[in-house]
Specification:
The complex is a heterodimer of chains A (about 675) and B (about 100).
Chain A: H1 10-24, H2 30-57, E1 63-72, E2 75-83, H3 85-108, H4 115-134, H5 138-156, H6 163-194, H7 209-215, H8 226-241, H9 250-253, H10 259-268, H11 273-280, H12 282-285, H13 298-317, H14 323-343, H15 347-374, H16 392-406, H17 413-426, H18 433-457, H19 464-467, H20 474-489, H21 500-506, H22 519-541, H23 553-557, H24 559-566, H25 571-622, H26 625-643, H27 650-670
Antiparallel strand pairs in A: 1-2
Helix pairs in contact in A: 1-2, 1-4, 2-3, 2-4, 3-4, 3-10, 3-15, 3-20, 4-5, 5-6, 6-8, 8-11, 8-13, 10-15, 11-15, 13-14, 13-18, 14-15, 14-17, 14-18, 15-16, 15-17, 15-20, 16-18, 16-20, 18-22
Chain B: H1 3-24, H2 28-52, H3 60-90
The chains are: A mainly alpha (about 675), B mainly alpha (about 100).
Amino acid sequence: MIPTPAQVWLIPCLPLLAAGLGAVTPRRGRRLAAAAAILGMLGALVLSGFALCGALAAPSVHAFSNFDWFALGDGAVRLGWLLDPLSALLCAMVSLVGVLIFVFSLGYMDEDPNFTRFFCFLSLFASAMLCVVLANSLLLLFIGWEVMGLASYLLIGFWFHKPAAAAAAKKAFIVTRIGDLGLLLGMVWLYSATGSLLFYDGGRGVLEAGVLGGLAAPGLAGGLAASTGIGLLVFCGAAGKSGQFPLHVWLPDAMEGPTPVSALIHAATMVAAGVFLIARMFPLFSADLALPSVPVHALTVVAGIGAITALLGAAIAVAQQDLKRVLAFSTISQLGYMMLALGVGSWVAAIFHLLTHAFFKALLFLSAGSVIHATHHEQDIRRLGGLRGPMRTTFATFAVGMMALAGVPFLFSGFWSKEAILRAASGWTVSSLPLYAGLAGVVLTAFYMTRLLCGVFGGEARSPAAAHAHESPATITVPLVVLSIGSIGLGFLGTPAWPWLQSQLTGERIPSRPLLEGGGLTVLSIVLVATGLGAGWALYARRGRATAGDKDPLEAAAPGIFAFLGARMKIDEAYAATVGRLCSLSAAFADFLDRRVWGGLVAALGKLGEGAGSLNSGADEAGINAAFDAVTRGLRRTGRAYSKAQTGEAQGYLRALAVAFVVLALLALFGGLR
Amino acid sequence: MSPLHLCLAFSSLLFAVGLTGALSRGSSILVLLGLELMLNAANLNFIAFWRFGPAGSPATGVVFVLFSIAVAAAEAAVGLALIISLYRNQRNIRLPEATRLKG
């Protein structure tokens, strides 16, 4: 029953079938669409479970199955599927989290009239994501990547009647497209340099030693290697999808979508695809490390951007007032941590954090969704509060997610994966700045999560909606409980004492080390977490705000900084003033050219013709007119008769065209008209 | 029926669906959809004749269709721009009402 690489196409195929079925189901077929989506996802989960067993049995093998997509001239465009522990683990994670979020959506979207459309889009997304993780070809990965972008666009704009949601969907699509342009260019470059886009192909794939050796030679201007350039272009795509610093602006706005979408796409899976892409192509990214004299290594850029994003996201999250936006900036910050881990060379730590983050961030988002569902779409933490009593299950699961994210020691998965990243960063020889950024992020993370927890669940209810909240139904709470078990248990797969995950991913036996390896750093980060939690507790739990109008304690202390962070460091405004302004200026310039320059030219030519015509007509009127008048009168009469046929209806013309064509065809067939 | 005939029958069906759509629907977006379907039927014929017809150069059919798809993309962009300006002029996109060029 273990699928071979040639059979793994079934895994993305099942949700795709469900999406197709959902697309043709009428609106009242709610049960059918939901059942198809959940069954498709369950099938994918079972198959990926078997695939995981198969991959873990031989962790050092990259089992692949390539096939020709289409032949073009003498060559052929080839695609392929890949089954190794990395893809199988991601696949299992995506389908497990997917199933839970689908079940959650049953409860959450219950009252929405477009329930079937929602499940159709969700299945389409899941299918594309599974295609990305299982692809053995950068081209196949790119296809899934773009379908994911489309599904994300459709789902962010699911409530498109809200102008904010429509604008957010457009913004997400365009901003990620900027990154994808880089990825496409990198792909073209890679293909022209190697003639293949397959990752593994029995020695000829682009991630295998024979091909990489040629790519990593310093052959460009300034002594850059081709692999560095390709890596940086691919990183553009990853940065766009994963919300890294210059291109992160779409992710907070994407929270306009329904909460299950935020949990599945904008927290657990799609935004992690950038991290996965770099982990998958890690041999290419690290190929230039052997060259000592290149001006910049691709991974150094990755580490730098990751460190900036980790710190920036955490800092902005401190001053957000919207429940989901806090979580969105926290996602940006955590993705920064993963990029940082990739940059400092530990892709295993990045994937470990990706897996644990997927569980605890999906848990946090779904718990937030439960709160939003119970309070009738109240998301402002100033107007929430006091939910600890009426929503006990949600409070407990949110607290588990919050402690996992903050990195509360030993019990929670986030602690172990964050420790792995910090340890990797401390071992990086190029610079210590990423480590300091990571450590600063740890304090901020613990602080803003405490602020959020106290704001939503602590104190007294600060609005009628919060005061009348009740616990959500079982379809909502059961996925929460399952995810919290994952958020705790998953960490124990990768502790230093039992590095099972690490040895499976690399395919080598990694010796077990003491649990608190690198003692000083671990103690330091535990102290930092405690500082963040303590500060948050002191500021928000002991004397929290009493009414919705009260000022935030931080706002009272430093209004300038708080407003600056609350406005997301004004990055959106800066883009509007630079890139946006440039675009509208160039559009205005083109408009000016069209209307004034070319339009003026045409108008001048017209005037010239008009002048010549009036000169002519003067001669005509006086001279040879009368004879023609009689003729033209006749012509005009016929013309008027003919113009009755000109109804102006485009479809009427088309109809006449079609009928005439059929008549001609019949004549050609039977009338001997050849 | 040979594969060629099957392909041709399928593309005629596609063409008929597209033509019916283009002739019978009022919304200009649906008419544009119908046009695209007819175009794809023609593309399918290109591919079918290239694949099953007398052997030509190895890439003719594919390259022809790739060009045709690129032109169709440009056509869709122009068509959508036309629909937008139609909307701006008459506040809806119904083709039967766009009869301002009546003689």
